[in-house]
């Protein structure tokens, strides 16, 4: 087993990794990090969920000098969403080292980006079009870049970014290191590698088929922003004896165990930062049945054999099929029946499909309890907390004074509602992730309208479109709304809560053998 220690990284990068709560390198990281540190060009075949961002991010940040005012590394990504996500991850890992990162993408005012660039950043993460725009304006200089990463390269090529990518490449010095990450390696990628890479090392995490135990396997589609509530609804609707919940990171374990405890579940966390004694204590309580839910990292859960585990819940999707098989093997022991539930966010749909492919099996989709039900439960919870606080008699005097003051001019009901709004608005808003802001698409209320770049010319009919959406995004066919098919393009409406899944599943895909591109519609396209 590899440890992050074995890479001999800068203490500040190690601090960043610790703060992320990573326990051990994921399979792609174990191979990729040392190769990149040695200066090799790398082709990594991996998708979201495998830890690919940190696989290139850690050695990239290790390499960058935070004192420099010049751009030292560039990451190209196909979409705004991915650019933001990668940028966030790099910012967090590089925070202790004070590396400055900046996402630049279309749709954001260019003036703001120019200002941010002028302040001196060392890592730029952007979509090819906007990056090129800055290069042409002279607001971005890449003469000192030592490393270029092409993230989700297959998608960038599918989206027709090849010319833009090559144009960006022309602005880089000759001797830069090039890393390429891609879920698939079609001929166009190989060609790109031949043209621009220097003896690339090929790294993949897929090890062919692994065998999953025969137990019921189910997945739920969830959004990052409401994941905890979704989990609680699931927990409340399952007849659960004992469950093991898996999180990716130690930090994730702590946070989830605490949140569950706060909501009244008998939960405890288990990970490698706990002293042996603490670990023994947690395991003993779990064995005795005093703890209902054990929240654990992969490492901590290795070797756990408790016969009464009725449920394994992948709160975070595993990083590879092997880990999936290990995890779900913790249930259904000693001849009992067990069930494995996996929570999947929009961006992780592909990782789910890849796991299914490697275990040569399918996870059954199951519908989450509705958002209204979740909201109702949250309201109930908040009510209970408020009553408890009132009854505790422990209010800070300043607050009471403040309210008294305000009641001279305002209604007490409104003051209370405003205070709640300030404290909890984010718990109740929408239910769509902040990264998925599709803007005004001209759809019916509660729906999002998407534009698809093929129509009758590709023999697309409504039935096929509905089938493709239902299958690829894992949503019920009857949920698909209005469809308009024209000669060369189409529109389809889907419910807001399903929109991120439809977008991620179909923005680059195939229907009827035709390559399709799906994007949020603009209202002026309205028929
Ligand atoms: P990615 O595949 O890069 O999209 O990463 C998926 C998720 O895994 C992100 O939330 C990362 O922060 C997380 N992650 C990356 N590396 C590790 C690791 N070694 N241990 C645990 N979580 C990780």
Automatic annotation (TrEMBL):
The record's section on Pfam families has: DbpA, DEAD, DeaD_dimer, Helicase_C
PROSITE patterns per record: DEAD_ATP_HELICASE, HELICASE_ATP_BIND_1, HELICASE_CTER, Q_MOTIF
Q: Which CDD domains match?
A: DEADc, RRM_DbpA, SF2_C_DEAD
Task: State the span of motif (Q motif).
Answer: 2-30
Highest taxon of the lineage: Bacteria
Q: Which reaction does it catalyse?
A: ATP + H2O = ADP + phosphate + H(+)
Residue ranges of every copy of the DEAD-box RNA helicase Q domain listed in the record: 2-30
The chain positions of domain Helicase ATP-binding read: 33-203
Which InterPro entries does the record associate with it? DbpA/CsdA_RNA-bd_dom, DEAD/DEAH_box_helicase_dom, DEAD/DEAH_RhlB, DEAD_box_RNA_helicases, DeaD_dimer, Helicase_ATP-bd, Helicase_C-like, Nucleotide-bd_a/b_plait_sf
Q: What class of enzyme is it?
A: hydrolase
Q: Which GO terms describe its molecular function?
A: ATP binding; hydrolase activity; RNA helicase activity; RNA strand annealing activity
Helicase C-terminal domain segment(s): 214-376
List keywords of the entry alphabetically: ATP-binding, Cytoplasm, Helicase, Hydrolase, Nucleotide-binding, Stress response
> Example GO biological process term?
response to cold
Q: Does the keyword Endoplasmic reticulum apply?
A: no
The UniProt record lists the EC number as 3.6.4.13
> According to the UniProt entry, where is the signal peptide?
none
GO cellular component: a single term: cytosol
Q: Does the keyword Transcription regulation apply?
A: no
Q: Which family does it belong to?
A: Belongs to the DEAD box helicase family.
Q: What is this protein called?
A: ATP-dependent RNA helicase CshA
> Whose protein is this, by species?
Kroppenstedtia eburnea
């Amino acid at each position: 087993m590899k440890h992050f220690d074995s890479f001999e990284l800068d203490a500040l990068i190690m601090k960043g990794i610790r703060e992320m709560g990573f326990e051990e390198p994921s399979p792609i990281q174990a191979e990729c990090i040392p190769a990149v540190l040695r200066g090799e060009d790398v082709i990594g075949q991996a998708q979201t969920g495998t830890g690919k961002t940190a696989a290139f991010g850690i050695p990239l940040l290790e390499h960058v000098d935070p004192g420099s005012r010049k751009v030292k590394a560039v990451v190209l990504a196909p979409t705004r969403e991915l650019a933001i996500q990668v940028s966030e991850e790099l910012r967090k890992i590089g925070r202790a080292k004070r590396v400055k990162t900046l996402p630049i993408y279309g749709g954001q005012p260019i003036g703001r980006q120019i200002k941010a660039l002028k302040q001196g950043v060392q890592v730029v993460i952007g979509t090819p079009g906007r990056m090129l725009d800055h290069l042409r304006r002279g607001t971005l200089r890449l003469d000192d870049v030592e490393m270029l990463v092409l993230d989700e390269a297959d998608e960038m090529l599918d989206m027709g970014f090849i010319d833009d990518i090559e144009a960006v490449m022309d602005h880089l010095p000759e001797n830069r290191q090039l890393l390429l990450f891609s879920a698939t390696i079609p001929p166009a990628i190989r060609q790109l590698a031949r043209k621009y890479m220097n003896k690339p090392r090929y790294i993949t995490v897929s090890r062919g088929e692994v065998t999953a135990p025969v137990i019921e396997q189910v997945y739920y589609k969830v959004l990052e922003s409401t994941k905890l509530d979704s989990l609680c609804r699931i927990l409340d609707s399952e007849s659960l004896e004992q469950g093991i919940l898996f999180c990716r990171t130690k930090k994730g374990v702590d946070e989830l165990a605490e949140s569950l405890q706060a909501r009244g579940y008998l939960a405890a966390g288990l990970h490698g930062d706990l002293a042996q004694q603490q670990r023994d204590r947690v395991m003993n309580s779990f064995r005795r049945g005093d703890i209902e839910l054990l929240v654990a990292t992969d490492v901590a859960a290795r070797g756990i054999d408790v016969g009464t585990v009725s449920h394994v819940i992948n709160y975070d999707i595993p990083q590879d099929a092997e880990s999936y098989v290990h995890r779900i093997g913790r249930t259904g022991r000693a001849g009992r029946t067990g069930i494995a539930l996996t929570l999947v966010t929009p961006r992780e749909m592909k990782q789910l499909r890849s796991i299914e492919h490697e275990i040569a099996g399918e996870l059954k989709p199951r519908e989450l309890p509705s958002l209204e039900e979740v909201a109702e439960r949250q309201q109930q919870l908040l009510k209970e907390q408020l009553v408890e606080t009132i009854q505790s008699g422990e209010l800070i005097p300043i607050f009471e004074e403040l309210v008294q003051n305000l009641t001279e001019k305002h209604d007490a009901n409104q003051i209370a509602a405003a205070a709640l709004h300030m404290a909890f608005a984010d718990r109740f808003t929408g239910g769509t992730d902040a990264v998925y802001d599709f803007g005004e698409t001209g759809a019916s209320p509660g729906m999002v309208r998407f534009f698809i770049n093929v129509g009758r010319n590709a023999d697309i009919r409504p039935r096929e479109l509905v089938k493709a959406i239902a299958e690829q995004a894992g949503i019920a066919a009857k949920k698909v709304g209005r469809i308009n098919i024209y000669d060369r393009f189409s529109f389809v409406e889907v419910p807001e809560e399903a929109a991120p899944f439809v977008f991620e599943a179909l923005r680059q895909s195939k229907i009827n053998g035709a390559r399709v591109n799906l994007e949020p519609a603009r209202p002026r396209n309205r028929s």
